[in-house]
Amino acid sequence: MSKNTRFIFTVLLLALAVGGYFGLGRREQDRSLMAVLGTGVLRIGYAVEEPHAFLKPGGQITGQSAEVAKAVAASLGVRNIEWRVADFSALITELEENRIDVIAAGMFITRERARRINFSEPIFHVSQGLLVAADNPHKLSSYNDILQKPAVRVAVLSGAVEEQLLRRIGLGESQLVKVPDARTGRVAVETGVAEALALSSPTIAWMAGHGQLGKTEQALPFEQPDPSLTSSTGYGAFAFRKTDAALLAAWNAALKPYLEEPRYRMMMKEFGFVPEEYPGTASTKEILSR
Predict the structure, then answer these.
(1) Structural domain boundaries enclosing 269
(2) Segment 257-266, tens digit of pLDDT
(3) 204 and 251, same domain (yes or no)
(4) CA distance 155 to 137
(5) Overall pTM surpassing 0.85 (yes/no)
(6) Please, what sign has the CA dihedral across residues 202, 208, 209, 210?
(7) Shared domain check, 26 and 145
(8) Residue 114 sits in the same domain as residue 244
(9) Which residues of the chain are under the pLDDT cut of 50?
């Protein structure tokens, strides 16, 4: 038995044991892992947002979250991935309604989302950033600057962590402009619909490195929000249905060694992530308890 085969066999035993444990007292055991392995097909939902998940020329799905998902799926012996695109705000509903099996979209771990879904262990931990019009005419260098200037409006991806953070510091509805994706948000800043766009720092770095800033620029320097508000934010992970404990357990077992491999570090660099944005040692359980 090869090393890789032994690893997959161990993963399956672990996942089946967890599935049996969660199935005690229920009419049916959790067969989420066996269903995927039986068909050889895993349905992965994503939203188009660079650098997490997007289409390369020719139509192939790539991105930080997508490439990690491919590696984990291969370790589990999945033969075919069906990629299904949706608006970011609709992904959890797609998962709950059984149209996808996993969400791979750079989704941040939050307590609110964890009421509806289960998260894998984290795959990155990023800080916040701000996109502003060229030359930063409103001199914005923090979220608090926006709070102190009621006439300034900030675009946010609908349902994203940035929206939640801005609300938590006291930003009112009149200052928020909800957009479906980063490119729409950039256009909102260019056309004066909003004066800034709140995004994670790797997304802005990716846009800057690929000539996608247009008539905008990254607000530098940028002061991060109060650590008391962000100690549990910025961690990204995959998402699973509450009922799919066996699939989640197998996924986490395959994910752990991958995150320690050189190919993970090379992939992160390719998509604009720096070592400080690796997930670190915090577990999802710890993050949700903060």
Answers:
(1) 3-125+234-289
(2) 999 999 999 9
(3) no
(4) 16
(5) no
(6) positive
(7) no
(8) yes
(9) 1-2, 5-6, 9-10, 13, 15, 17, 19-27
